[in-house]
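cron nightly-structures :: item 1 of 1
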Amino acid sequence: MAGTMGGAMNMDGGDPRINSSAGMGFGVASEVTRPAVQKLHDPSVTFEEYMHYAAITRADDRNISPHTDNALSVAGLKSMNPFAKKREPVVESVIQMNEKTASSSPDRTSYIISEEEYIRASRAVRTATWGAVFFLITTDILGPFSTAWAFRQMGYGPGAVLYTIFGVFAGYGGFLLWKMFLGLDSDKYPLRTYGDIAFRVYGQTVRIGVNFLQTFQLLFNVGIIIVSNGQSLSQMAAKGPNLNQNGACFIVLCFVWAIAGMLLGQIRTLARLGHLANFAIWLNVIVIIATMAVVAHSTPNYVAANTAYMVNPGPVVTTAGPPDGVAFQGQVVGLMQAVYSYGGAMLFVEFMAEMKRPWDFWKGMLCAQSFIYVVYMLFGLFVYSFQGQFTLIIAYQGISSYAWQTVANAFGLTSGLIAALLYGNIGIKVVYNNVLMEIFKFPSLGTKAGKLAWIGVVPVYWAVAFIIASAIPQVANLSGFIAAACILQFSYTFPPFLHFGFQIQKAAIQSGEGFDPATGQTVRHDNGMKRYIRGFKMNILWNTFHIIFFLGSLTTAILGIYSAIVGMIASYATGATTTFSCSSPVL
């Protein structure tokens, strides 16, 4: 499943280009207030106005040298360099002015700095290069421990073909997001999140739907990690591969991780957690190598496979096509692991928002997706070849050697905790900013009252994630459900849907139409369906393809949700899964 998240996103309420929460060290330590008095999601700002200022910003981007990557930036370590240069003076001066004004006036939206100073400060702190983005995407997605199980469900042929197809379309979805970002993001109206693109193309209702799915996904991701870590700890506490009855209660072990999240989740900024994310990817690499080495020279974990899937000991069997004992719904859940594997598009907008040259995003994305595809295919095919029908959903938990199993579980626990903290941090900020602040008028997280509110919100969030984990302790079906309900939408369904609306509005603009900065008005010669039909006909082939892409993704999502729910029901019916139980799903 998707690995540790690389934390370059910010949900503190400010522009991630100029906010400390922008993880991985790309951000600045204080917030810079925008010079204009503007609502963040102002319905009076037209599509043409967004495009007008985006064109100006992109023209300025061309003057930035692309030849600035070095070994540290490509490795994602430049932000961790203790000898790095200090922030530019203009940034420091703007920060000081902001803090002084903010402390004396409750109105943070008042005119504080000039437009020129704001743009200079904004660009000074957009430091991410395409090499760093490569590392961020890889850190976010890399964690192929469910890919071997996907091959167990689908067989060699369908598994390899579908992983390839979904990898290609995940890259294409990222390409569409990149094109929309270039066309709508500007220094005056910066894009910060996925929901911001939805707002500028379709309006507030679609933005709310996108934000809800993002919140839902992050919450369930934390729940999945709680279950996974609970399973790892239960194997370690068993004192041997056949002694699980002497181990600790599974539900208690899951609760331990929930308590850890409640305590460590009090860290509000992602800056420090970003350094841990860099470390977590290397832990995953160690576990990948160790798992492949051990499974090649040992027997499968027959006891764990029997407990999890009721598979009796015997010779290892692999198949070219779908195995006879796996129902169609089980094959679909296996397919959803491919979707889960490429589930990083939700954060692509946040990554682009921190780049000094968003033009170069495609380089980092292409390299990252290609690298991830190779690693996932190699690992999945290798482990499945040696473990066959005994392959577990978390591959290293299928190691029969207790010593190596414990080592892998220990590393997995560490990287899993880091991932849970990052997912939880972002998920809480999404809920806080889009629900608590907008609807219930909670104070900003930058204020003292907001910091106190954060202390109370964190335990509630982790408690809900713990309840989800304890009620549905099924990593395969639960991750399959989230892949179908949420991840598939961000990577495959939303990109063509959003680009369809984006391209129609863009193509519908006629000669003499557009935004006039002198008057602040947008000129349109017509409105309504006539305008949309004209925009559709201008790129009829691509628009038709995107409709088909959108409908195909939506159909796959519905099928995936249905299959995951059927799998959950079947697991409860056979007694393989029990809620809030002391019995571990694996040994």
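cron nightly-structures :: done
The chain has a mean pLDDT of 81.
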